[in-house]
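User: If you would, consider this record:
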Amino acid sequence: MEFDSGSAELNQRIAEWLRWDKNEKTVEEVRELAQRGEWKVLEDRLLQRLTFGTAGLRGVMQAGFNAMNDLVVIQSAQGLAKYLLQCYPSEEDRSRGVVLGYDGRYNSKRFAELSACVFLNENIPVWLYSSTVATPFVPFAVLELKCLAGIMVTASHNPKEDNGYKVYWTNSAQIIPPHDKNIQTSIMENLEPLESSWNLELLLSDKLNDPYEQMVELYFRKLQANVPQPFIRDYNTGSPLRFVYSAMHGVGYPFVVKAFECARLPAVIAVPEQRDPDPEFRTVKFPNPEEGKSSLVLSMQLANETGCDLILANDPDADRLACAEKDAKGEWRVFSGNELGALLGWWAIRCYREQYPDRSLSDCYLIASTVSSKMCRSIANIDGLNFIETLTGFKWMGNKSVELLSQGKTVLFAFEEAIGFMISPTVLDKDGVSAACHLATMACYLRATSNQSLADKLNELYDIYGFHCTLASYHFCYEPPVMERIFKRIRNMEPAGDAKQPDQNYPKTVGEGRFKIADVRDLTTGYDSSQPDNRAVLPSSKSSQMITFSFENGAVVTLRTSGTEPKIKYYAEMCAQPGQRDWNGSKATLREMVDCIVEELLQPKENNLTARSD
């Protein structure tokens, strides 16, 4: 049946979808929309398509080229397969294969199996995990099995309606330019699905193997080796501490259990309602422990009932870690990603010194994304390590780690404020399983050696390295043109001077002149007023918005759009000097500055932005 939408292009896309898609549900979805004449809906779904963004694809599961579904997954796998063969044309390289994993969301296993069939059809061997895995097990397998690439089917902490397709390159780090653009080009050149791409009987091929047992055993052997053995023997074994754990309806539980066993930590007390994979995420509004107390209600209830003072929580694909601790007054404190980054950064150094007491720290590196706290920089400056800042996202930190390791350097730790931590380069990506093991070991160590809580240790670090006060949050913005308008206005708030170019007329103050801006860095346009040539040192990209303001009082505030969600995020930090004690004053000033920036630059009322609810 042919449909006439009044648009030749849309008619062609509808016909292509009905011809190419073999999934009865999504075929019927498009057919019914066409029969009802819902052309605007079909335009949104068929005239645009998901493109490779933050390490791959992420979108809502529904019919259409602009969504996650069987056809788009097959097209993506075909494009990736062709690009791999272009990059690695020899038979010997092809035999290295690819590794595929999946989480517990709707369709994740099917998307992984369809992708496997595409690669098998190209005579590329496939390592397909036979059960749900934590995301870190895919880059780990790429590295250990020396695969050409890895794919993890997950939408991480997104709503239940979403799914995603995360791609790792041959170096086991997430893809970065030019691979993302080249893969997208290859997808566009291979849109028509081969008949064989739908043939799940290929899963019986002798070129399909299950890496689960081998990789799980090896992962935990390496994790155990990364925790100093005296710490396991003297502090973890027999520790009085107990930990409540939430898998947030995801895949983390069996892996965290195994991690605690190998480090001889007390067994976790799991939140039963959230322990096993549940694609409905039925007990939380957002399956994201980054949301703070609102996502940890059941964890806190269980901890109160069982007398536990510490809570650990992964996101659904277990590559992030949240932590809460009960204070002396019985109140729960949820640590921010920046606070956990400071603690784990110190811990990574402590573990290294324990294992290699005679080695210098001069070739050791700490890495953080540019919107994360500079606490690790302060630690590195005082303790004689190196600190490197990258663009936002672990794809940049993973690839920077690859570069440093190839030069014989030692990467101790990398983190981003969005509760992502890489403790040792065993996995060149954030890893919530190893982070949970190390954070629990640190808690046992502190209790045994100095009777300190995590909060006590954090305050001690602030005394030594300077108080670092951070604020981070976001507003929802569901209209991309509004996001663009907001940032265009920020770039043109001051009258253009003789020396200024269009889009370089940033505000000079906020708060009615009280807070003066010293420098502006715009990683969308590549402008940086702090550099002699006004060019940013970090790579810039016009595909996302990101502006950083450095204030005369030492505060640094970054505004950026999210690569995976309809959000405008802000990150603010005030860094005090070691020994400076007016911490409450720093907090109050930063809060006031952030309120001014949100009202004056983002203009939530005028732009119909919705503030974070928590």
Remarks:
- The longest helix spans residues 583-602.
